[in-house]
Design brief:
Phosphorylase Kinase, domain 1; Aminoglycoside 3'-phosphotransferase, Chain: A, domain 2; 2 domains; 6-stranded antiparallel sheet; globular
């Protein structure tokens, strides 16, 4: 992590103007942190004096990237969703302010609370005694997200309530577009996968709030419990099985010891009353291969061409998975043995 005195001064002056009632406000220890694969993230501490004495908070700046991994970014949309999800009781960071004026940091950004702890994937590997509780928290949090009355909580702005084929078609369109824009050369295996996906779109029974990136990398753990789900930039209305499949896909991909996919799905069905059909789960796992391949290819291009490639470093580690994802997808679809 690198100290950024220039950004520290800018943010200090910005916060003083934004919150004039916070006396003697000071910003300290502002550092860029290299986590995730898209937004530029800074961590810092802020302190000020109010009527009751001194207040100190650890905060995060989440700034839109110059080049991202999935097309257009709208941090305002994400922050609005986070505020309403927080009101609905979902464990998410508190958003303190949103700034769309690009004159401050060059791109729109938000300041939100810093969640202490570690990623679920790290806690799972380091503390085997916590795995049973983490597995329960992971599935119950997902069930809570999918159970939100999104009409009642003002989240209908996230998308359409059409469910049938709309959600899947939109996802295929999105990630095909990301690939077309990002790839340096053709990927015939991914083209074949896209063709199969369009021919096998399942009927979705209902639409829910979908995180869009529900994985053990975005669950944050403190004292053996998941205390927050992070990175809501892809939040949308869609087929809940897309989140279930992405969670299963990622937990399998990261080789988490003692991860039990069947138990996860069974518990999800118990909590939600939603049947996870095998053919639907398979479809969304295949779409997960296309999605992650598009993200890694786009992340590679962003790393090479962005003015701030540090935010893409974690994705570069995933880049080695691109040929593996293509091979696994073709094997799952029964093509691979015919290609050897």
């Amino acid at each position: 992590m690198d100290e950024r005195p220039d950004i520290r001064h800018t943010i200090g002056e910005y916060l003083k103007a934004r919150f004039p009632d916070r006396n003697e406000l000071a910003v300290d220890d502002l550092r860029e942190i290299q986590v995730g694969g898209s937004h530029v993230i800074y961590a810092f501490s802020a302190c000020w004096r109010d009527d009751e004495g001194w207040v100190s908070k650890n905060l995060i700046i989440r700034r839109e990237p110059d080049m991202g991994v999935h097309g257009s970014y709208d941090i305002g949309r994400e922050c609005e969703a986070l505020s309403r999800l927080y009101e609905a009781g979902i464990p998410v960071p508190v958003v303190h302010c949103l700034e769309r004026d690009t004159r401050v940091l060059g791109r729109p950004f938000a300041i939100m609370e810093k969640i202490e702890g570690e990623r679920m994937v790290d806690a799972w590997l380091r503390r085997p005694e916590s795995r049973k509780q983490l597995a329960e928290d992971f599935v119950s949090t997902l069930a809570s997200i999918h159970g939100i009355d999104w009409h009642g909580h003002g989240l209908s702005f996230l998308g359409t309530s059409e469910h049938d084929r709309h959600s899947a078609e939109g996802e295929i369109d999105k990630w095909e577009s990301v690939l077309e824009r990002s790839q340096y050369g053709p990927h015939p295996a991914l083209a074949e996968l896209s063709t199969w996906l369009r021919r096998n779109i399942p009927r979705s029974e209902h639409a829910t709030i979908c995180h869009g990136d529900y994985s053990p990398f975005n669950g944050h753990v403190l004292n053996g419990r998941i205390v927050a789900m992070l990175d809501w930039e892809m939040v949308d209305l869609g087929d809940p099985i897309s989140d279930v499949a992405w969670a299963c896909f990622f937990c399998g991909l990261t080789w988490m010891p003692e991860w039990d996919e069947a138990a996860f799905i069974h518990r999800y069905e118990e909590l939600t009353g939603v049947e996870v059909k095998a053919e639907d789960l398979f479809f969304w796992k295949m779409l997960a291969h296309l999605k992650l391949a598009a993200i890694t290819i786009s992340g590679t291009r962003a790393f090479l061409e962005s003015t701030n490639p540090t935010s893409m470093r974690e994705l570069m580690a995933f880049n080695t998975l691109t040929p593996i994802l293509q091979q696994n997808a073709l094997q799952s679809l029964g093509y691979w043995k015919d290609l050897r």
